[in-house]
Amino acid sequence: SVVRTSDGKLASQIEFNGKTGNGGSGLYYGLALSPDGKTLYVSYGSKDQIGIWTLNSDGTLTVKGDSIKIPKPAGAYMPSSPAGLAVTSDGSRLVVVNNQTTHTSDYKGSVSVVDLLTGAETARIPTAGFPFALGLLTKGPNANRIAYVGSERDGVVEIVDLASKMVKGQIKTGAAPSALLLDKNQKTLFVANTGSDTVSVVD
Description:
There is one protein chain. By secondary structure, the chain is mostly beta strands. Helix content is 0%, strand content 47%. A 4-stranded antiparallel beta sheet has the order 3-4-5-6, with no helix packed on it. A 4-stranded antiparallel beta sheet has the order 7-8-9-10, with no helix packed on it.
């Protein structure tokens, strides 16, 4: 749904339950807007796809026919279930949190980096189990390099270095961190913890 901030009214809405124009699917947690505000990336969850939607100047949404496919790792029998999404400040890459966590992944989740020009996955970085929400730095010296990823299972936010493809550290939060928000200056991270009904504030 797109809501006009000027009057609070609905500008556009796409029904996504049951059979729809894309062949029938459901949505999962994960929306990311391109830097120019014209393209919306939408997680299709267990379909292991990211939808590409157009946000028109009048606020209406249009679903494009193509989508980005998130590949299954070798030996995986369950979908990756992409959740949190973020677009780099230059619009060239999409960062995707893969929520699925099983014995085939050594009980770890992962973060994928996707080249938006080709649609190819260029990196997959292991994380703590059942990662869900994502925050990406798009300003300062670590712009487009450092991502924050919340693990529902472990009650931590991990600091993921997309350049070195490594987890650089963990921040303990409340239970089940499920939403992350950086402030305007990207100096403070707010973490909503659904399992403990708290908000962690990280400087």
